[in-house]
Write a structure and sequence with these properties.
By secondary structure, the protein is of the alpha/beta class. It folds into 2 domains: 276 residues, Zn peptidases (Aminopeptidase, 3-Layer(aba) Sandwich); 135 residues, Glucose Oxidase, domain 1 (3-Layer(bba) Sandwich). It has 11 helices and 19 strands. The strands form 3 sheets. The protein has a 9-stranded mixed sheet, with helices on both faces. Strand 2 and strand 3 form a beta hairpin. Helix 7 crosses helix 11. The chain starts with a helix and ends in a 15-residue tail after the last helix. The relative contact order is 0.16.
């Protein structure tokens, strides 16, 4: 036994020395580490890591255990690595019914809900031809039936204009555009989800229902003004729904120099209506890839010499339904927000964007601050976002903190990747070589940021306002 303990001790010491030597010589992000994270997080067993589900909690627990294994500490004021928050998250059941003229239509057979306020709605029927939306006068609170969409056209093309008229309900005919939208929503209706501690707001939501061609034909014959109502079936919530942020902390040597925040989101869309026979939305790229980047940067930086600045590594829950994990973190930060030097979010880094130079990640809001150019000057494979019209800067978790004055941006791969919010966002469609190289390129620039006096700042007019 004594000899066995001696051998074990020798192996352990050799492992520690090997890790320390590797950090001193320059850390190498190994592709098998990157793949291993993806194999777990994006596996079918994880059922798509649906927001505020047990699968999200398992993903957060995995990330937390990795943080612990890398030697990170619980964040100040926390006894562990998980931050939880209760959410209000209604889920529609098959009992949802659309009624008109005494006829009850069944969800799944006759129609499906795309968007819902989470409450029953009804209104007097008003027909609006697709070509006349711009001239239509629609009474507030009515039920709009959109008709005469041209063959090959989109039932959702004029949805924005209809919503601005404040109807209670919009009914469209199912077509390719409604099918695409349902897939983007994870194969199920989008109902506002909010933190339990926050007030619910559905003011910007209009209930939208897509009906079959047969139902549309019937509705065209219904008298104008006839009441059209949608009665929701809600799955009973037998216990609180919780969302989880995984948080690891690497203390720096100078508490007064501030804290860097590196983030991603660990949730995805869960399980929904199948597409080509597959109903698991794995989210390998969105955002198991970003979560992997946070993990491997934690791995690299924790193994090296002590840094001057502290670093918080955070993987948020419930980003998909409205950035709830980052909202809760912003309201309950383990360190005061004024101490955050900057925030770098990682989103969908698993595919190379064809509009970017080979090997580069796009950096949202590049022109807004000096952070991107500074990191690039120190070796980060980053470049300006080629999709300003998509407003990616405002569409990720970084925006919550940017609104509070913190220089916060997102590094991403292909901004309009074809697998976005589809079941084929799986490991088979990742570019693991690109992903590994991108993470590798960030290790030393982030190490520089954590040891230097450089403090990122907004360029004139770059800071977003509420």
């Amino acid at each position: 036994m004594a000899g066995g303990r001696g051998l074990w001790l020798a192996v352990a010491v050799a492992g520690v020395l090997s890790t320390g030597l590797r950090a001193q010589q320059g850390w190498t992000v190994r592709p098998e580490w990157v793949r291993a994270h993806e194999e777990f997080l994006a596996s079918d067993v994880m059922a798509g890591r649906g927001s505020a589900t047990r699968d999200e909690e398992i993903a957060a627990t995995y990330v937390a255990s990795e943080f612990m294994g890398y030697g990170l500490k619980p964040a100040p004021g926390m006894s562990g690595y998980l931050q939880s928050a209760e959410v209000d998250a209604p889920v529609l059941s098959s009992d949802t019914v659309l009624s008109v003229s005494g006829i009850k239509l069944q969800q799944g057979k006759d129609f499906y809900v795309l968007f819902s306020t989470g409450s029953n709605v009804s209104g007097g029927l008003v027909r609006v031809a697709d070509g006349a939306v711009g001239k239509a006068s629609v009474p507030k609170g009515s039920a709009v039936l959109l008709t005469d969409v041209p063959a090959g056209g989109s039932s959702l093309q004029n949805l924005g204009a209809l919503r601005r008229m404040a109807p209670a309900l919009v009914v469209v005919e199912q077509d390719a555009s409604t099918e695409r939208m349902l897939t983007l929503l994870g194969g199920k209706a989008r109902i506002p989800m909010h933190l339990k501690e926050a007030a619910s707001s559905t003011s910007s939501v209009t209930t939208v229902v897509a009906v079959s061609a047969a139902v549309m034909s019937h509705l065209k014959g219904v008298k104008e003004g006839e009441s059209l109502s949608l009665s929701l079936g809600i799955v009973p919530q037998v216990k609180p729904r919780m969302t989880f942020n995984a948080i690891g902390y690497l203390p720096g040597s100078d508490p007064g120099s501030g804290t860097i925040l590196l983030t991603a989101h660990l949730d995805h869309l869960g399980v929904g209506r199948p597409v080509d026979g597959d109903g698991i939305f794995n989210g390998a790229n969105d955002d198991a890839a970003g979560t992997t980047a946070v993990l491997e940067l934690a791995h690299a930086l924790a193994a090296g010499p002590k840094l001057r600045r502290s670093i918080l590594f955070v993987c948020y829950g419930s980003e998909e339904p409205g950035e709830l994990g980052s909202e809760y973190f912003g309201k309950h930060p383990p360190v005061p927000l004024k101490e955050l030097v900057t925030n770098l979010e990682f989103e969908m880094i698993g595919s190379q964007d064809p509009k970017m130079p080979k090997g580069e990640l796009l950096f949202t809001g590049w022109e807004r601050s000096n952070l991107g150019p500074a990191l690039k000057a120190h070796g980060a494979k980053l470049g300006p976002d080629p999709y300003p019209e998509e407003h990616f800067f405002e569409r990720s978790d970084n925006y919550q903190l940017a609104l509070q004055g913190i220089v916060a941006h997102t590094a991403a791969g292909w901004g309009t990747v074809p697998t976005y919010h589809r079941p084929d966002d799986d490991i088979a469609h990742l570019n693991l070589e690109f992903m590994t190289s991108a993470i590798q390129s960030l290790v030393e620039p982030v190490r520089w940021l954590a040891t230097s006096d450089f403090k990122p700042s907004w360029n004139p007019g770059g800071q977003p306002k509420r």
